[in-house]
Amino acid sequence: MATSSTAPLDKRIGFLGSGQMAEALARGLIKRGLVTADRIACNDPNPARKELFKSFGAVPYESNADVARNADVLFVAVKPQHVASVLAEVRPVLGEGHTVVSIAAGITVDKLVEAAGPEAHVVRVMPNTPCLVGETAAAMCLGGKANPEDESLVRTIFEAVGKIYTVDEKLLAAVTGLSGSGPAYVFMMIEALADGGVKAGLPRDIAQALAAQTVLGSAKMVIETGNHPGALKDMVTSPAGTTIAGVHELEKAGVRAAFMSAVVAATDRANQLSKA
């Protein structure tokens, strides 16, 4: 992710809920120079979270309605079960100039529009936890009166902390199964690689560092070269060498199918939760 400053947004940002994902977004926007800290408003039931936002220059408010009055882009960053009540609080003060961005898992566009009102400009976003280190893989869909300007605005915001793609809402469950849940799969892979290194004789700290850096570097090669992962794999697997011996063991264990099944299972569960 680029960390250089960019042209500032002529928008005020509000957070309804000031948890870790909200904090990551706020810090990313400030770091990239998209907004100054004093143009970020927030509220949270936990006073400690509001104090944390205040510590880096954001402005905490006592009510969600006050946040909405002092923001143009309003992030709904509360637990899914609280989304409807939070939007009901701010609905009377929402206007044509507001873009409402929900990062609550499983809350559909229809539910967001029902709570925010039929005139609301609603954008539903599925980010993931690498947002915390400025490398989110996110997707969005539009609802209500949201328009291309809202889409462009949300894209600019999330590109401060990673990548974002626009998809049909019916595909957000698949996004959840892949990039939403995917970090857990990758963490398990890093842990397993490190365990293998320890079994082969490496000290734990070195094994873990090598495993994590290997995943980071490999992902960067896929992104920056644009080559198919299979082609990059073939570059490493020389005839009768060490890598093909390891790849054979992975194939025997069904690792490829296991990852595919994990994505599909998480997608199915996301679909179930969105219909609840």
Automatic annotation (TrEMBL):
One GO term under biological process is: L-proline biosynthetic process
Which residues are listed for NADP(+) binding in this entry? Answer: 16-21, 77-80
Which reactions appear under catalytic activity for this entry? L-proline + NAD(+) = (S)-1-pyrroline-5-carboxylate + NADH + 2 H(+); L-proline + NADP(+) = (S)-1-pyrroline-5-carboxylate + NADPH + 2 H(+)
Give the pathway annotation.
Amino-acid biosynthesis; L-proline biosynthesis; L-proline from L-glutamate 5-semialdehyde: step 1/1
Q: Where is the Pyrroline-5-carboxylate reductase catalytic N-terminal domain?
A: 12-106
Describe the family membership recorded for this protein in Swiss-Prot or TrEMBL. Answer: Belongs to the pyrroline-5-carboxylate reductase family.
Q: What name does UniProt use for this protein?
A: Pyrroline-5-carboxylate reductase
